[in-house]
Amino acid sequence: MFWRVFILVVLGLINVVLFCRMVWGPTGLVEYRELKQQYAALQEQIAVLDAENLALSREIRLLQSDKQYVEKMIRQRLHYVRDNEVLYLFGSSAKTGAGATNND
Q1: Measured distance between the N- and C-terminal CA atoms of the chain, rounded to whole angstroms
Q2: How far is the C-alpha of 67 from the C-alpha of 14, rounded, in Å?
Q3: Which residues, 6 or more positions from 75, have their beta carbon under 8 angstroms from its beta carbon?
Q4: DSSP secondary structure letter of residue 84
Q5: What angle do CA 17, 21, 23 make, to 5 degrees?
Q6: Which residues contact residue 90 at a Cβ distance below 8 angstroms, ignoring those fewer than 6 apart?
């Protein structure tokens, strides 16, 4: 009878240790939840970078093939103007070049 109780207590302790290790161990449920959150954040970051990559690819294609787009970008970003044109820059757009007028 003593041996049965002893074996049951030992097996119960082993179960408790295994359960604690399953929940809080290095490959436990807590770590799994953190990794799942990191995975979701990385997936979101990948989606943002894919969208940015698509926009940059589109801009590259336009710059390689569309002369009007190239002219527009040069006029916007470098503040180039044609003869008899006046360029007005306001506030922060004067620093970034986002406010250049385009009078074609």
Answers
A1: 100
A2: 75
A3: 81, 100, 102
A4: T
A5: 120
A6: 99
